[in-house]
Structures
1.
Amino acid sequence: MDPLPSWNDGWAKAAILDFVARATREGGPDFVPVPERIAVFDHDGTLWVERPVHAQIYFTLDRLAGIVPRDPALRARQPYKAFLERDLATIASFSRREAFEVAFRAHSGLTTAEFLDAASSWFKSAKHPTLGRLFTDCVYQPQLELLDYLRAHHFKPFVVTGGGVEFVRSIAEQLYGIPPEQVVGSSNKTRVESGPGGPAIFTLPEVRSFDDREEKVVNIELHIGRRPRLAFGNSDGDLRMLQYTGRGGGARLGLLLHHDDPAREFSYDREFRLSPLDEALRIAPAEGIMVVSIKNDWRAVFPS
Amino acid sequence: MDPLPSWNDGWAKAAILDFVARATREGGPDFVPVPERIAVFDHDGTLWVERPVHAQIYFTLDRLAGIVPRDPALRARQPYKAFLERDLATIASFSRREAFEVAFRAHSGLTTAEFLDAASSWFKSAKHPTLGRLFTDCVYQPQLELLDYLRAHHFKPFVVTGGGVEFVRSIAEQLYGIPPEQVVGSSNKTRVESGPGGPAIFTLPEVRSFDDREEKVVNIELHIGRRPRLAFGNSDGDLRMLQYTGRGGGARLGLLLHHDDPAREFSYDREFRLSPLDEALRIAPAEGIMVVSIKNDWRAVFPS
């Protein structure tokens, strides 16, 4: 039985099947012991849709009250102004850092438990603006199959996301079967305060880690402590993680998803400032990173 | 067959057996689904010996070259002076933070891979100064049995240590079967630099997280993202983690190891400044935290 029915036969699918075969062939030259079978996946644009803008930005727009600075001068300034005016075109022109710092700041003051409740409850009804389905149905079917296939071969998948770690944790177990301890992401600083209900964790306004580019490697080391064997990303923000995964010998696989299917999903790369794909696409061949085309490599995009 | 043969029959052993029975009784009121079966263990003094001073301090003393500041004025100042003079009595009188910042600073400039090599190689021959055995043989046999017992019931154990995360990771898999991604600890900031061998991770001199007291709760949230069901510690540094674990309903267990057996191990609590046990011992009863006595509760201390 085909373990990856939503993947078309082609180089990408062949590379995945070959990688897993080599990594799991006991006694073979590329055998990878089970504890070292670590796979890292970017989230937005790799496991699910990130256009027109990221789900976490829609979430932030829907909960504006929390992000409005009291200072009227700030309200008239970017990036706040675009959020207050729900100006998506302007938001999409921000750098990833500009846009996400508003999103991360939006929920400071909440406890992490309160934030998780807010996100879980939002996801119950929040719909993608153009695809006509819940955000939670905007996951990529071929990736769900790949996660299952890797797990069946005793790989442990981690999400390594530029998005907020708590935001992604609120749905990662339900959508991907990935537990919170296998989600690494951006985070704000937190403070623990002891009250009658015991210690509670409050989110502070300052960013602790913006999990993008080099910082993805920093966080892989901090959270996982082991060089992954497979990495899957879709933007320049994933390039360092792909390069880090690709070095070190033995069975290794780096995959880069290219959004080139406007009919079934979206078509974009370097011009999308929130998640640009330019440098990584150019140097992928020299780095041995396999480019996956949604149009050519995926038979289906979404779960039916 | 007794799953905990090195534990004497008594309240502590009964509490552990009862906790696991309740957590795993399907349909019972305290049933805990498998993904939520998170157990957190402090390291030094909880899973292995921390007296006369911590293994990481002996490691630092044995690799002095790296920690000697160039500035002669600094060399004459504490805490450096005591390390340079190998003055263990003075080192043991430091606060945990003072002593460990020297240890953490000692290896800045190395890549994390180089540090892991140095630690692994040191552990191959480093002997405990008074117990006449390798440091790696200074683990507590009852805790090895407890870890196995918990895993047999689908609990996932994490180490949450005030020690350096890379230092503990270098032996956690070998000693406890705990993989690097299940070790949370103190860490310095790191920087990723790209070279011909791909991205490499360098340790910087500044502390990123000193994983003690409230910070243990901060890091449990950051790394695990879920409130644990069982926590085991041995000092005031573990109190917040024990309190955090103890709240929230359902099957929960907090355990606090009291070192009260000078014949077989060591006897100490509030006077050991590197790892004091005072407040936690006083409020344990009111918090429902079970105090475990090495003398009374452990039939054996070390593996034979």
Note: The interface with chain A takes residues 35, 38, 112, 156, 158, 165-166, 169, 173, 179-183, 187, 190-192, 194, 197-199, 201, 208, 214-215, 217-218, 221-226, 240, 243-244, 246-247 of chain B (CB under 8 Å).
2.
Amino acid sequence: MQPVSFRSIASRYKAIFFDAYGVLKNYKGLVPGVKETFAFLRENDIRFYILTNDASRSPEALAEYYFRAGLPEITADKIVSSGMLALDFLRSKVNHGTVAYLGPKRSAHYVETEGLKTIPIGDLNLEHAASVNALVLLDDEGFDWERDLNKTINLLRLRNMPVIVANTDTTYPVNRDSVAIAIGGIGELLERIVRKTFIRFGKPDAQIFHFAYDHIQQDGPMKKEDILMVGDTLETDIWGGNKFGVDTALVLTGNTRREKAEIWIEASGIIPNYICESVAD
Amino acid sequence: MQPVSFRSIASRYKAIFFDAYGVLKNYKGLVPGVKETFAFLRENDIRFYILTNDASRSPEALAEYYFRAGLPEITADKIVSSGMLALDFLRSKVNHGTVAYLGPKRSAHYVETEGLKTIPIGDLNLEHAASVNALVLLDDEGFDWERDLNKTINLLRLRNMPVIVANTDTTYPVNRDSVAIAIGGIGELLERIVRKTFIRFGKPDAQIFHFAYDHIQQDGPMKKEDILMVGDTLETDIWGGNKFGVDTALVLTGNTRREKAEIWIEASGIIPNYICESVAD
Amino acid sequence: MQPVSFRSIASRYKAIFFDAYGVLKNYKGLVPGVKETFAFLRENDIRFYILTNDASRSPEALAEYYFRAGLPEITADKIVSSGMLALDFLRSKVNHGTVAYLGPKRSAHYVETEGLKTIPIGDLNLEHAASVNALVLLDDEGFDWERDLNKTINLLRLRNMPVIVANTDTTYPVNRDSVAIAIGGIGELLERIVRKTFIRFGKPDAQIFHFAYDHIQQDGPMKKEDILMVGDTLETDIWGGNKFGVDTALVLTGNTRREKAEIWIEASGIIPNYICESVAD
Amino acid sequence: MQPVSFRSIASRYKAIFFDAYGVLKNYKGLVPGVKETFAFLRENDIRFYILTNDASRSPEALAEYYFRAGLPEITADKIVSSGMLALDFLRSKVNHGTVAYLGPKRSAHYVETEGLKTIPIGDLNLEHAASVNALVLLDDEGFDWERDLNKTINLLRLRNMPVIVANTDTTYPVNRDSVAIAIGGIGELLERIVRKTFIRFGKPDAQIFHFAYDHIQQDGPMKKEDILMVGDTLETDIWGGNKFGVDTALVLTGNTRREKAEIWIEASGIIPNYICESVAD
């Protein structure tokens, strides 16, 4: 499959769904040329939406990054994150009592806006386990892995409760050469050890696509065949988009390097409609 | 968790999502008292929708069963099946060429209405593998397992294509004492052997819930908190409903027997809001 | 990793363990040059042993193949098969009552030599399930997959018993272009559906290596560092040999083609000491 | 299955294989009555051997515990640990260069006795990744989980090397109410993230049973049918013993509580020959 120019294919669609990390930005900042791409979308009257597996901060905080980086088009109402969906779930299904969490305080603050009390696992006294109504895995940072992961499995042995994984990613890139274990990977470890079924939010699951799809209808009706999902990861962005029923484009600015793209597509059976060097291409 | 009367809880909701097999009907026919329950729903102005993991026949054929059984309220437009979603996918993402399938001819006929050509794996000549654009697993019946499953793995070695599993169930009950391997179980075997990622449709995935949710809005807006999902299987009906964000009730007329219910809930971590003996209760 | 001549490395060892299919023979018969290799081993006083994942017939029947093919050195006492180990297990751990099986009658005959009664799943009346003390999966042929796999899961729901998988392979090559699902693959499907732990025999498990290792001591003591395991499959032959603690050589005459060898080694992390074109090289 | 007296069944065997933790000792010290049991074994001329999934210290250090606790019969030569097998592997298969490890320094010291250089992951400079010939997971303590697990996955991305997990356990009890994640659980997380095949040592694998079996022959020949494996864990002790072909007894002084024993046996399909309250019974 030969890479094609992103703009040449984008113009065939009425809306684009973008993954964030590895597509619009990376560890060095905005991907070069992204601003021109958004100008192109505006000129051609192509709508867009950002679908990101991220529960470390609120859409407002995510939008602020783009504003400062010179991309004011990406406002909070153009972003759906896996963390937002996890929050919706907690609001509708748990709605009272205490939610224990793994992650930094800034992400907990974001849950607390809903009136639910939150407590980091590190501060929880297991003798009060009966007061905990849910556990949410928000981020891989902000806690002591050894102490708090062990505490978590003992909490889940003491009390049966819903466990929400607010980001399905297993790793994320920290620079050109290194990755780190994401909270989704930690969730798989815990799920395997306690043998319970956790509730995951984020691509490739259909929910995040439905959220974006419903939103984009607000500016006029839009069919699935008019939408293109653009991402750097086969297992989340491309598989999720394929399954949701929209066309998909794999970009080579993130998790999938050019020399691996064909091999991984062949090996996984996850086939994008297009491959592009970059969204700036 | 003590079983409660279904009608007593149903009256708190504005809409009910029902699983079909094990909830409304079983190997012996309609669950006794189901007709009275639907009269109760009508009297109380409670909307309903049927969500079924079934790709063996069309919604029209499914509805005909209820009509003949004396439940004319369940018309085709009140039913969403995993097979319908698989069909939507084929229409929007494959849309030309030949689709090979595992299942009986009556299920293929149902795919063919969309203009795609279909061919049973058993009739396919592997020298023409290049003409096949997708494979769909429809049902566990209507083919020679040994010959056609071996043929399928060789087809997938020859050509990279989307593989759609139109029903996620791994087994289904055939009478009081026996189960049979469903096409979802066969899909897992094939997926494991060819090491590709198949595309599955059906509960617990969010898509089938979204379809029902969107439909039910047509008779007036409805929030998730006003909807109850009723099913007999923790892993599909209850987990899917929980994750989608609606309340859930487990009934004991199908896969989950009373004496196992508590143990399985504890072991899986999948917790329904209610347990009811039957929807007729 | 550059392929090296098999003979040049074989001469550094005092004993060679060979996989059979894909190494000594394939769907066309003996691999060309194998006879000369065995003459070379004899001249250089290098002992050998055959380790094969096969439960379809007895070592005597396997040896007869080599005799007829002009390789009389490979006698029954030089062969250990996964089927032999399964038989040992049945003899020592079950030792009375009836053993139900999946596979052809010729493989059952081989179990029966131990005085245990056997019955093919197809002939079993499930009302007599209480008389069955074990189930053994022998081969992928000789039964009706649809009828007998469904019968098997119902047998295992009725009665808790040891299930023995007498061959861990998931597929096997039937000619240059095609593979077939092996009984090990069928075992994984059943294990997943009934959620029980089956007992598997064959490479990469240590038992088959221990059996060969113990036998080869009978002609004089032999250390692990003096033994080379030769196979065509990374996941069974090479991983098993590595883990058992002997050196390993991957040959390219079977499951692993030259163009895939490096990629699969990199992807799996299973690293042979050597790669050789063929044992005849 | 009714619990039976341990001594009444022990007297039918010529040798007993014991798991250590949960059988002979627990977080409070020796299980009460264990000394009398070992006196009983001596009087009845029953041999014994200890098979333990432990890589945190040497057999000598393990034996010293029993000596101090008043059980001098359990000398280092009566113990086989998963760590010893991992060490054997490193000696025979890696044998030069540097081995990186996760675990405390005291466990590394034990590897170093073989002349291999060792370095804790925490001290490793990833720019020197090329000098590392193997990675060994020894224990869950003695390192910074967040920093060092992330470093480990980046090491394994940089260089393809054998990874040895020196203890297959996923959790271990720390007191009556709590468990901790063992290095085997951490191994599964890493294996899943880097998608490589790690090499595991410990029950239920056959190797540790073979080691004990070979050793016990030194005081006179002994058949498998004369040996009883005693353990507190179905998935390791009982499954491993069953598969190796010796009889098995589950004791209720460790991981498996009386009220769960029948349910877990039914659910797993792992069936011991006997259940005993305790080895002191």
Note: The first strand of chain C starts at residue 15 and ends at 18.
